[in-house]
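Page 47, continued from p. 46.
Same chain as before, 550 aa.
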Amino acid sequence: MTEDFKSDFLVIGSGIAGLMFALKASRYGTVSIVTKKEIMDSNTALAQGGIASVFSHVDSFDLHTQDTLDSGQGLCSKEVVEAVVKDGPGMIRELIDLGVKFNLDMEHKTAEHGELNLELGREGGHSQKRIVHAEDMTGKELEAVLVRHVRDNPQIQVFEDHIAIDLIIGSARKKSGMLLTAHENYCCGAYVLDREFSSVKTFQAKSTLLATGGAGKVYLYTSNPDIATGDGIAMAYRAGATVANLEFVQFHPTCLYHPEAKNFLISEAVRGEGGVLLDADGNSFMEKYDPQQKDLACRDVVARAIDTELKKSGADSIFLDISHKNAGFVKKRFPNLHARCLEYSYDMTKDPVPVVPAAHYMCGGVATDMNGKTDIERLYAIGETACTGLHGANRLASNSLLEALVYADKAATHAIEQIQELQFLSIPEPPPWDECDTVDSDELIMVTQNWDEIRRLMWNYVGIVRSDKRLERAKRRIEIMQAEIREYYWDFRITADLIELRNIAVVAELIIDSATHRKESRGLHYNIAYPNKDDLRWLKDTVLRKSIMN
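Result:
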Protein backbone atom coordinates (compact mmCIF):
# COMPACT_ATOMS: atom_id res chain seq x y z
CA MET A 1 0.00 0.00 0.00
CA THR A 2 1.27 3.46 -0.89
CA GLU A 3 2.46 5.56 2.05
CA ASP A 4 0.95 9.06 2.11
CA PHE A 5 2.47 12.33 3.32
CA LYS A 6 0.71 15.69 3.56
CA SER A 7 2.14 19.18 3.94
CA ASP A 8 1.24 22.71 2.97
CA PHE A 9 4.20 23.00 0.61
CA LEU A 10 6.08 20.34 -1.35
CA VAL A 11 9.55 21.29 -2.58
CA ILE A 12 11.21 18.97 -5.10
CA GLY A 13 14.93 19.74 -5.13
CA SER A 14 17.44 20.97 -2.56
CA GLY A 15 19.56 23.62 -4.27
CA ILE A 16 19.58 27.28 -3.31
CA ALA A 17 16.19 27.89 -4.96
CA GLY A 18 14.35 25.09 -3.18
CA LEU A 19 15.96 25.66 0.22
CA MET A 20 15.35 29.43 0.19
CA PHE A 21 11.72 28.87 -0.81
CA ALA A 22 11.31 26.29 1.95
CA LEU A 23 12.68 28.62 4.63
CA LYS A 24 10.36 31.42 3.59
CA ALA A 25 7.29 29.17 3.19
CA SER A 26 7.90 27.51 6.57
CA ARG A 27 6.88 30.71 8.34
CA TYR A 28 3.32 30.05 7.16
CA GLY A 29 3.00 26.26 6.96
CA THR A 30 4.61 22.85 6.87
CA VAL A 31 7.12 21.99 4.16
CA SER A 32 8.28 18.65 2.72
CA ILE A 33 11.57 18.70 0.81
CA VAL A 34 12.14 15.76 -1.53
CA THR A 35 15.72 15.38 -2.79
CA LYS A 36 17.00 12.50 -4.89
CA LYS A 37 20.28 12.00 -3.03
CA GLU A 38 21.68 13.83 -0.01
CA ILE A 39 20.50 17.37 0.61
CA MET A 40 23.91 18.87 -0.25
CA ASP A 41 23.99 17.14 -3.65
CA SER A 42 23.01 19.97 -6.00
CA ASN A 43 24.35 22.21 -8.75
CA THR A 44 24.38 25.03 -6.21
CA ALA A 45 27.07 23.32 -4.14
CA LEU A 46 29.35 23.25 -7.20
CA ALA A 47 28.93 26.93 -8.10
CA GLN A 48 32.31 28.63 -7.91
CA GLY A 49 32.02 32.17 -9.25
CA GLY A 50 29.36 33.90 -7.19
CA ILE A 51 26.24 36.04 -7.40
CA ALA A 52 25.95 39.03 -9.72
CA SER A 53 24.59 42.06 -7.87
CA VAL A 54 25.11 45.81 -7.86
CA PHE A 55 27.13 47.12 -4.90
CA SER A 56 29.84 49.35 -6.36
CA HIS A 57 29.38 53.12 -6.65
CA VAL A 58 30.61 52.94 -10.27
CA ASP A 59 28.00 50.28 -11.08
CA SER A 60 24.24 50.68 -11.48
CA PHE A 61 21.03 48.71 -11.99
CA ASP A 62 20.88 50.10 -15.52
CA LEU A 63 24.35 48.75 -16.36
CA HIS A 64 23.58 45.30 -14.93
CA THR A 65 20.27 45.28 -16.80
CA GLN A 66 21.92 46.24 -20.08
CA ASP A 67 24.66 43.62 -19.70
CA THR A 68 21.97 40.97 -19.13
CA LEU A 69 19.94 42.13 -22.14
CA ASP A 70 23.04 42.18 -24.34
CA SER A 71 23.94 38.65 -23.30
CA GLY A 72 20.37 37.43 -23.95
CA GLN A 73 20.48 38.77 -27.53
CA GLY A 74 16.94 40.03 -27.86
CA LEU A 75 15.08 37.26 -26.02
CA CYS A 76 15.15 38.52 -22.42
CA SER A 77 12.06 40.04 -20.84
CA LYS A 78 13.19 43.54 -19.88
CA GLU A 79 10.56 43.68 -17.15
CA VAL A 80 11.89 40.47 -15.59
CA VAL A 81 15.53 41.57 -15.92
CA GLU A 82 14.88 44.91 -14.22
CA ALA A 83 12.95 43.29 -11.37
CA VAL A 84 15.60 40.62 -10.70
CA VAL A 85 18.50 43.08 -10.86
CA LYS A 86 16.83 45.51 -8.46
CA ASP A 87 15.97 42.78 -5.95
CA GLY A 88 19.53 41.42 -5.96
CA PRO A 89 21.17 43.52 -3.21
CA GLY A 90 18.31 42.84 -0.81
CA MET A 91 18.66 39.09 -1.30
CA ILE A 92 22.42 39.29 -0.69
CA ARG A 93 21.71 41.06 2.60
CA GLU A 94 19.26 38.28 3.56
CA LEU A 95 21.98 35.70 2.96
CA ILE A 96 24.42 37.64 5.11
CA ASP A 97 21.80 37.82 7.87
CA LEU A 98 21.49 34.03 7.64
CA GLY A 99 25.22 33.70 8.17
CA VAL A 100 26.71 33.44 4.68
CA LYS A 101 30.30 34.73 4.74
CA PHE A 102 31.16 36.54 1.54
CA ASN A 103 34.64 37.89 0.84
CA LEU A 104 35.19 41.42 2.08
CA ASP A 105 37.29 44.08 0.38
CA MET A 106 40.08 44.60 2.90
CA GLU A 107 41.96 47.09 0.73
CA HIS A 108 39.05 49.54 0.41
CA LYS A 109 37.48 49.81 3.83
CA THR A 110 35.39 52.79 2.81
CA ALA A 111 32.09 52.48 0.95
CA GLU A 112 33.91 51.68 -2.30
CA HIS A 113 31.77 48.57 -2.83
CA GLY A 114 28.71 49.58 -0.90
CA GLU A 115 28.07 49.75 2.82
CA LEU A 116 28.70 46.00 3.12
CA ASN A 117 32.28 46.46 1.89
CA LEU A 118 32.07 43.35 -0.28
CA GLU A 119 34.91 42.20 -2.52
CA LEU A 120 33.59 42.15 -6.07
CA GLY A 121 34.86 40.10 -8.97
CA ARG A 122 34.23 40.40 -12.70
CA GLU A 123 33.25 37.76 -15.23
CA GLY A 124 32.59 37.54 -18.96
CA GLY A 125 29.89 39.87 -20.29
CA HIS A 126 29.91 42.15 -17.25
CA SER A 127 30.87 45.79 -17.77
CA GLN A 128 31.72 46.28 -14.08
CA LYS A 129 32.93 44.30 -11.10
CA ARG A 130 29.76 42.95 -9.43
CA ILE A 131 30.32 39.30 -8.55
CA VAL A 132 29.78 38.75 -4.82
CA HIS A 133 31.64 35.60 -3.83
CA ALA A 134 32.91 33.38 -1.02
CA GLU A 135 36.45 32.57 -2.18
CA ASP A 136 35.96 30.31 -5.22
CA MET A 137 33.41 28.09 -3.47
CA THR A 138 30.39 30.37 -3.25
CA GLY A 139 27.83 27.65 -3.86
CA LYS A 140 29.23 25.38 -1.17
CA GLU A 141 29.06 28.19 1.39
CA LEU A 142 25.48 29.07 0.41
CA GLU A 143 24.31 25.47 0.50
CA ALA A 144 25.93 24.75 3.87
CA VAL A 145 24.32 27.76 5.55
CA LEU A 146 20.86 27.14 4.07
CA VAL A 147 20.97 23.42 4.90
CA ARG A 148 21.83 24.24 8.51
CA HIS A 149 18.80 26.50 8.80
CA VAL A 150 16.56 23.91 7.12
CA ARG A 151 17.78 21.16 9.45
CA ASP A 152 17.02 23.35 12.47
CA ASN A 153 13.51 24.27 11.29
CA PRO A 154 10.74 22.14 12.90
CA GLN A 155 8.31 23.11 10.13
CA ILE A 156 10.48 21.48 7.44
CA GLN A 157 10.86 17.73 6.89
CA VAL A 158 13.59 16.55 4.53
CA PHE A 159 13.29 13.30 2.56
CA GLU A 160 16.72 12.37 1.22
CA ASP A 161 17.22 9.57 -1.32
CA HIS A 162 13.70 10.16 -2.63
CA ILE A 163 13.23 10.79 -6.36
CA ALA A 164 10.01 12.22 -7.79
CA ILE A 165 8.37 10.13 -10.52
CA ASP A 166 5.47 12.27 -11.71
CA LEU A 167 3.30 15.13 -10.57
CA ILE A 168 -0.22 14.44 -9.34
CA ILE A 169 -2.61 16.49 -11.45
CA GLY A 170 -6.26 17.13 -10.71
CA SER A 171 -8.85 18.87 -12.82
CA ALA A 172 -11.67 21.25 -11.92
CA ARG A 173 -14.34 22.99 -13.97
CA LYS A 174 -13.80 26.73 -14.32
CA LYS A 175 -16.81 28.99 -13.86
CA SER A 176 -17.24 32.17 -15.89
CA GLY A 177 -20.32 34.06 -14.77
CA MET A 178 -23.19 31.54 -14.87
CA LEU A 179 -21.38 29.19 -17.23
CA LEU A 180 -19.05 26.28 -16.58
CA THR A 181 -16.19 26.51 -19.04
CA ALA A 182 -13.09 24.45 -19.74
CA HIS A 183 -11.31 22.29 -17.20
CA GLU A 184 -8.52 23.86 -15.18
CA ASN A 185 -5.64 21.61 -14.18
CA TYR A 186 -4.01 21.93 -10.79
CA CYS A 187 -1.15 20.16 -9.03
CA CYS A 188 -1.72 18.52 -5.66
CA GLY A 189 1.64 16.81 -5.11
CA ALA A 190 3.78 14.06 -6.58
CA TYR A 191 4.46 10.33 -6.62
CA VAL A 192 7.93 9.73 -5.18
CA LEU A 193 10.21 6.70 -5.12
CA ASP A 194 11.96 5.93 -1.83
CA ARG A 195 15.29 4.72 -3.20
CA GLU A 196 16.31 2.87 -0.05
CA PHE A 197 13.20 0.72 0.22
CA SER A 198 12.17 0.74 -3.48
CA SER A 199 8.66 1.85 -2.49
CA VAL A 200 6.50 4.57 -3.99
CA LYS A 201 5.08 7.26 -1.69
CA THR A 202 2.36 9.82 -2.33
CA PHE A 203 3.20 13.37 -1.29
CA GLN A 204 0.16 15.65 -1.18
CA ALA A 205 0.50 19.42 -0.89
CA LYS A 206 -1.49 22.59 -1.39
CA SER A 207 1.41 24.05 -3.33
CA THR A 208 4.21 22.26 -5.21
CA LEU A 209 7.55 23.72 -6.22
CA LEU A 210 9.87 22.29 -8.88
CA ALA A 211 13.47 23.24 -8.09
CA THR A 212 15.25 20.21 -9.52
CA GLY A 213 18.04 22.06 -11.31
CA GLY A 214 19.21 21.55 -14.85
CA ALA A 215 19.74 18.76 -17.37
CA GLY A 216 23.45 18.66 -18.12
CA LYS A 217 23.51 14.86 -17.99
CA VAL A 218 21.58 14.86 -21.26
CA TYR A 219 25.03 15.49 -22.78
CA LEU A 220 28.09 13.28 -22.82
CA TYR A 221 30.34 15.98 -21.36
CA THR A 222 28.99 18.24 -18.65
CA SER A 223 30.05 20.29 -15.65
CA ASN A 224 26.91 19.15 -13.83
CA PRO A 225 26.68 16.48 -11.13
CA ASP A 226 25.03 13.13 -11.86
CA ILE A 227 21.70 14.35 -10.44
CA ALA A 228 21.16 16.86 -13.28
CA THR A 229 18.76 14.80 -15.40
CA GLY A 230 16.07 17.41 -16.12
CA ASP A 231 13.52 15.81 -13.79
CA GLY A 232 11.45 18.93 -13.15
CA ILE A 233 11.26 19.90 -16.81
CA ALA A 234 10.24 16.39 -17.85
CA MET A 235 7.61 16.00 -15.10
CA ALA A 236 6.08 19.39 -15.81
CA TYR A 237 5.93 18.70 -19.55
CA ARG A 238 4.28 15.31 -19.06
CA ALA A 239 1.74 17.00 -16.78
CA GLY A 240 0.82 19.50 -19.50
CA ALA A 241 2.84 22.56 -18.47
CA THR A 242 4.38 24.80 -21.10
CA VAL A 243 8.14 24.64 -21.60
CA ALA A 244 10.12 27.20 -23.55
CA ASN A 245 13.49 27.95 -25.17
CA LEU A 246 15.11 24.59 -24.51
CA GLU A 247 17.35 24.96 -27.55
CA PHE A 248 19.47 27.38 -25.52
CA VAL A 249 21.91 25.08 -23.74
CA GLN A 250 24.88 26.93 -22.31
CA PHE A 251 28.21 25.17 -22.74
CA HIS A 252 30.76 26.39 -20.23
CA PRO A 253 33.99 27.08 -22.13
CA THR A 254 36.42 25.85 -19.50
CA CYS A 255 36.11 22.45 -17.85
CA LEU A 256 39.37 20.81 -16.82
CA TYR A 257 40.54 18.34 -19.43
CA HIS A 258 41.74 15.24 -17.59
CA PRO A 259 40.41 11.66 -17.71
CA GLU A 260 39.91 11.58 -13.94
CA ALA A 261 38.59 15.11 -13.47
CA LYS A 262 34.89 14.35 -13.79
CA ASN A 263 32.69 17.47 -14.04
CA PHE A 264 35.42 19.78 -12.71
CA LEU A 265 34.79 23.35 -13.79
CA ILE A 266 37.42 26.07 -14.05
CA SER A 267 35.50 29.17 -13.04
CA GLU A 268 34.93 32.02 -15.45
CA ALA A 269 36.29 34.22 -12.68
CA VAL A 270 39.78 33.06 -13.70
CA ARG A 271 39.38 34.92 -16.98
CA GLY A 272 37.78 37.77 -15.04
CA GLU A 273 41.02 38.11 -13.10
CA GLY A 274 43.21 38.13 -16.21
CA GLY A 275 43.33 34.52 -17.41
CA VAL A 276 43.98 34.10 -21.15
CA LEU A 277 42.92 31.28 -23.48
CA LEU A 278 45.72 29.79 -25.59
CA ASP A 279 45.76 27.32 -28.47
CA ALA A 280 47.93 24.21 -28.56
CA ASP A 281 50.87 26.31 -29.83
CA GLY A 282 50.59 28.76 -26.95
CA ASN A 283 48.96 31.58 -28.95
CA SER A 284 45.98 33.61 -27.73
CA PHE A 285 43.02 33.46 -30.11
CA MET A 286 39.95 35.15 -28.64
CA GLU A 287 40.83 38.48 -30.29
CA LYS A 288 39.90 36.82 -33.60
CA TYR A 289 36.36 36.10 -32.39
CA ASP A 290 35.63 39.16 -30.24
CA PRO A 291 38.23 41.91 -30.72
CA GLN A 292 36.71 44.08 -28.01
CA GLN A 293 35.91 41.66 -25.15
CA LYS A 294 38.51 39.02 -26.10
CA ASP A 295 38.76 36.50 -23.24
CA LEU A 296 35.91 38.22 -21.39
CA ALA A 297 33.41 37.65 -24.19
CA CYS A 298 30.10 35.95 -23.33
CA ARG A 299 30.09 32.20 -22.93
CA ASP A 300 28.41 31.39 -26.24
CA VAL A 301 31.10 33.26 -28.15
CA VAL A 302 33.95 31.69 -26.18
CA ALA A 303 32.55 28.14 -26.37
CA ARG A 304 32.09 28.36 -30.16
CA ALA A 305 35.56 29.86 -30.55
CA ILE A 306 37.11 26.97 -28.61
CA ASP A 307 35.06 24.44 -30.56
CA THR A 308 36.27 25.99 -33.82
CA GLU A 309 39.90 26.01 -32.69
CA LEU A 310 39.74 22.37 -31.61
CA LYS A 311 38.14 21.25 -34.88
CA LYS A 312 40.69 23.25 -36.87
CA SER A 313 43.75 21.95 -35.03
CA GLY A 314 42.60 18.46 -34.08
CA ALA A 315 43.92 19.07 -30.57
CA ASP A 316 42.26 17.52 -27.53
CA SER A 317 42.09 20.77 -25.57
CA ILE A 318 43.03 24.41 -25.44
CA PHE A 319 44.68 26.04 -22.41
CA LEU A 320 43.75 28.61 -19.79
CA ASP A 321 46.74 30.59 -18.53
CA ILE A 322 46.86 32.80 -15.44
CA SER A 323 50.49 32.02 -14.61
CA HIS A 324 51.50 35.60 -15.48
CA LYS A 325 49.68 36.84 -12.37
CA ASN A 326 51.28 36.94 -8.93
CA ALA A 327 51.30 33.42 -7.45
CA GLY A 328 50.17 34.65 -4.05
CA PHE A 329 47.18 36.39 -5.60
CA VAL A 330 46.16 33.28 -7.56
CA LYS A 331 46.35 31.07 -4.46
CA LYS A 332 44.36 33.55 -2.36
CA ARG A 333 41.69 34.25 -4.98
CA PHE A 334 41.30 30.63 -6.15
CA PRO A 335 42.32 28.38 -3.25
CA ASN A 336 39.99 25.54 -4.22
CA LEU A 337 40.80 25.66 -7.92
CA HIS A 338 44.52 25.80 -7.22
CA ALA A 339 44.36 22.83 -4.84
CA ARG A 340 42.17 20.73 -7.15
CA CYS A 341 44.37 21.39 -10.18
CA LEU A 342 47.41 20.33 -8.16
CA GLU A 343 45.67 17.00 -7.56
CA TYR A 344 45.89 16.45 -11.32
CA SER A 345 49.51 17.73 -11.49
CA TYR A 346 48.64 21.17 -12.88
CA ASP A 347 49.96 24.24 -11.06
CA MET A 348 47.88 27.28 -12.06
CA THR A 349 50.59 29.63 -10.78
CA LYS A 350 53.21 28.19 -13.15
CA ASP A 351 51.57 26.53 -16.15
CA PRO A 352 48.56 26.82 -18.46
CA VAL A 353 45.74 24.41 -17.58
CA PRO A 354 44.08 22.26 -20.32
CA VAL A 355 40.35 22.96 -20.71
CA VAL A 356 37.44 22.02 -22.98
CA PRO A 357 33.78 23.13 -23.22
CA ALA A 358 31.04 21.10 -21.52
CA ALA A 359 27.25 21.35 -21.16
CA HIS A 360 26.65 23.63 -18.21
CA TYR A 361 23.30 25.42 -17.93
CA MET A 362 19.77 25.29 -19.36
CA CYS A 363 18.51 28.76 -20.24
CA GLY A 364 15.11 27.34 -21.16
CA GLY A 365 12.79 25.32 -18.95
CA VAL A 366 9.28 25.32 -17.55
CA ALA A 367 7.64 28.61 -18.55
CA THR A 368 6.63 30.78 -15.59
CA ASP A 369 5.26 34.21 -14.81
CA MET A 370 7.02 36.77 -12.62
CA ASN A 371 5.99 34.86 -9.51
CA GLY A 372 7.48 31.57 -10.65
CA LYS A 373 3.98 30.22 -11.35
CA THR A 374 3.49 27.76 -14.21
CA ASP A 375 0.30 27.46 -16.27
CA ILE A 376 -0.81 24.61 -13.99
CA GLU A 377 -2.46 25.94 -10.86
CA ARG A 378 -0.57 25.45 -7.57
CA LEU A 379 2.59 24.45 -9.44
CA TYR A 380 5.70 26.65 -9.34
CA ALA A 381 9.10 26.29 -10.98
CA ILE A 382 12.22 28.26 -10.10
CA GLY A 383 15.98 28.11 -10.59
CA GLU A 384 17.44 26.28 -13.55
CA THR A 385 14.23 24.25 -13.95
CA ALA A 386 12.36 27.39 -15.01
CA CYS A 387 12.28 29.70 -18.01
CA THR A 388 11.46 33.07 -16.42
CA GLY A 389 12.54 35.40 -19.21
CA LEU A 390 15.73 36.50 -17.45
CA HIS A 391 18.36 34.70 -19.52
CA GLY A 392 17.01 34.91 -23.06
CA ALA A 393 19.29 33.25 -25.60
CA ASN A 394 22.35 33.21 -23.31
CA ARG A 395 22.72 33.52 -19.54
CA LEU A 396 25.02 36.23 -18.24
CA ALA A 397 27.61 34.76 -15.87
CA SER A 398 26.55 34.54 -12.19
CA ASN A 399 22.97 35.60 -12.90
CA SER A 400 21.77 32.06 -12.10
CA LEU A 401 22.16 32.16 -8.31
CA LEU A 402 20.71 35.68 -8.40
CA GLU A 403 17.63 34.45 -10.26
CA ALA A 404 17.22 31.49 -7.89
CA LEU A 405 17.21 33.78 -4.84
CA VAL A 406 14.86 36.40 -6.25
CA TYR A 407 12.35 33.89 -7.60
CA ALA A 408 12.43 31.83 -4.39
CA ASP A 409 11.25 34.97 -2.64
CA LYS A 410 8.62 35.83 -5.26
CA ALA A 411 7.27 32.26 -5.54
CA ALA A 412 7.06 31.82 -1.77
CA THR A 413 5.17 35.09 -1.37
CA HIS A 414 2.69 34.15 -4.09
CA ALA A 415 2.26 30.52 -2.97
CA ILE A 416 1.57 31.60 0.62
CA GLU A 417 -1.17 33.94 -0.56
CA GLN A 418 -2.70 31.26 -2.78
CA ILE A 419 -2.92 28.46 -0.23
CA GLN A 420 -4.51 30.43 2.59
CA GLU A 421 -7.98 29.60 1.25
CA LEU A 422 -7.18 25.96 0.46
CA GLN A 423 -7.93 23.06 2.78
CA PHE A 424 -7.06 19.43 2.16
CA LEU A 425 -10.76 18.61 2.30
CA SER A 426 -11.18 20.57 -0.94
CA ILE A 427 -8.55 18.47 -2.71
CA PRO A 428 -9.71 15.03 -3.85
CA GLU A 429 -7.59 12.11 -2.70
CA PRO A 430 -5.21 11.17 -5.53
CA PRO A 431 -5.35 7.64 -6.87
CA PRO A 432 -2.82 5.28 -5.25
CA TRP A 433 0.29 4.39 -7.20
CA ASP A 434 -0.53 1.43 -9.45
CA GLU A 435 2.25 -0.90 -10.54
CA CYS A 436 -0.08 -2.43 -13.14
CA ASP A 437 1.19 -6.02 -12.87
CA THR A 438 4.75 -4.92 -13.54
CA VAL A 439 7.66 -7.21 -12.68
CA ASP A 440 11.30 -6.73 -11.76
CA SER A 441 13.44 -6.15 -14.81
CA ASP A 442 15.86 -8.76 -16.06
CA GLU A 443 17.06 -6.51 -18.91
CA LEU A 444 18.85 -3.58 -17.28
CA ILE A 445 21.04 -3.33 -20.37
CA MET A 446 18.19 -1.41 -22.02
CA VAL A 447 18.58 1.37 -19.44
CA THR A 448 22.36 1.66 -19.71
CA GLN A 449 22.41 1.34 -23.51
CA ASN A 450 19.81 4.05 -24.08
CA TRP A 451 21.34 6.29 -21.41
CA ASP A 452 24.74 6.21 -23.12
CA GLU A 453 23.28 6.51 -26.62
CA ILE A 454 21.16 9.57 -25.79
CA ARG A 455 24.08 11.43 -24.23
CA ARG A 456 26.43 10.69 -27.13
CA LEU A 457 23.71 11.49 -29.67
CA MET A 458 23.06 14.87 -28.07
CA TRP A 459 26.76 15.74 -27.90
CA ASN A 460 27.45 14.85 -31.53
CA TYR A 461 24.26 16.15 -33.18
CA VAL A 462 22.77 18.79 -30.87
CA GLY A 463 25.88 20.30 -29.33
CA ILE A 464 27.66 23.64 -29.60
CA VAL A 465 27.30 23.77 -33.41
CA ARG A 466 24.23 22.27 -35.09
CA SER A 467 22.83 21.66 -38.58
CA ASP A 468 19.44 20.73 -39.99
CA LYS A 469 20.74 17.32 -41.08
CA ARG A 470 22.15 16.54 -37.63
CA LEU A 471 18.90 17.57 -35.98
CA GLU A 472 16.90 15.34 -38.34
CA ARG A 473 19.11 12.38 -37.48
CA ALA A 474 18.81 13.12 -33.79
CA LYS A 475 15.01 13.32 -34.04
CA ARG A 476 14.70 9.96 -35.79
CA ARG A 477 16.89 8.21 -33.24
CA ILE A 478 15.33 9.75 -30.14
CA GLU A 479 11.86 8.70 -31.33
CA ILE A 480 13.01 5.07 -31.56
CA MET A 481 14.55 5.22 -28.09
CA GLN A 482 11.47 6.92 -26.64
CA ALA A 483 9.29 4.06 -27.86
CA GLU A 484 11.61 1.52 -26.22
CA ILE A 485 11.69 3.45 -22.95
CA ARG A 486 7.89 3.82 -22.81
CA GLU A 487 7.41 0.09 -23.34
CA TYR A 488 10.00 -0.72 -20.69
CA TYR A 489 8.48 1.81 -18.24
CA TRP A 490 5.04 0.18 -18.33
CA ASP A 491 6.33 -3.40 -18.21
CA PHE A 492 8.77 -3.25 -15.30
CA ARG A 493 8.83 -1.93 -11.75
CA ILE A 494 10.09 1.58 -11.32
CA THR A 495 13.73 2.22 -10.38
CA ALA A 496 15.74 5.43 -9.93
CA ASP A 497 17.77 4.67 -13.08
CA LEU A 498 14.61 4.18 -15.13
CA ILE A 499 13.12 7.45 -13.82
CA GLU A 500 16.24 9.37 -14.83
CA LEU A 501 16.46 7.68 -18.23
CA ARG A 502 12.81 8.49 -18.91
CA ASN A 503 13.46 12.13 -17.98
CA ILE A 504 16.63 12.68 -20.01
CA ALA A 505 14.88 11.14 -23.04
CA VAL A 506 12.00 13.63 -22.70
CA VAL A 507 14.34 16.59 -22.26
CA ALA A 508 16.57 15.46 -25.14
CA GLU A 509 13.56 15.30 -27.46
CA LEU A 510 12.39 18.74 -26.30
CA ILE A 511 15.83 20.23 -27.00
CA ILE A 512 15.85 18.66 -30.47
CA ASP A 513 12.33 19.90 -31.26
CA SER A 514 13.11 23.39 -29.98
CA ALA A 515 16.35 23.57 -31.96
CA THR A 516 14.55 22.38 -35.09
CA HIS A 517 11.93 25.11 -34.78
CA ARG A 518 14.46 27.93 -34.51
CA LYS A 519 15.52 28.70 -38.08
CA GLU A 520 18.27 31.12 -37.13
CA SER A 521 21.42 31.33 -35.06
CA ARG A 522 21.08 33.29 -31.85
CA GLY A 523 22.91 33.15 -28.56
CA LEU A 524 23.58 29.57 -27.51
CA HIS A 525 21.82 28.07 -30.54
CA TYR A 526 24.08 28.03 -33.58
CA ASN A 527 22.93 26.32 -36.78
CA ILE A 528 25.36 26.42 -39.71
CA ALA A 529 22.41 26.68 -42.12
CA TYR A 530 21.33 30.00 -40.55
CA PRO A 531 24.48 31.85 -39.48
CA ASN A 532 22.82 35.28 -39.37
CA LYS A 533 20.93 35.94 -36.14
CA ASP A 534 18.99 38.76 -37.86
CA ASP A 535 17.29 36.29 -40.18
CA LEU A 536 13.71 37.25 -41.05
CA ARG A 537 12.50 33.92 -39.65
CA TRP A 538 13.38 35.10 -36.12
CA LEU A 539 11.33 33.63 -33.26
CA LYS A 540 10.68 35.34 -29.94
CA ASP A 541 10.31 32.14 -27.90
CA THR A 542 10.17 28.45 -28.72
CA VAL A 543 7.15 27.16 -26.81
CA LEU A 544 6.17 23.49 -26.50
CA ARG A 545 3.32 21.90 -24.59
CA LYS A 546 2.07 18.35 -24.13
CA SER A 547 -1.49 17.86 -22.93
CA ILE A 548 -1.54 14.07 -22.43
CA MET A 549 0.69 12.26 -19.96
CA ASN A 550 2.61 9.17 -21.08
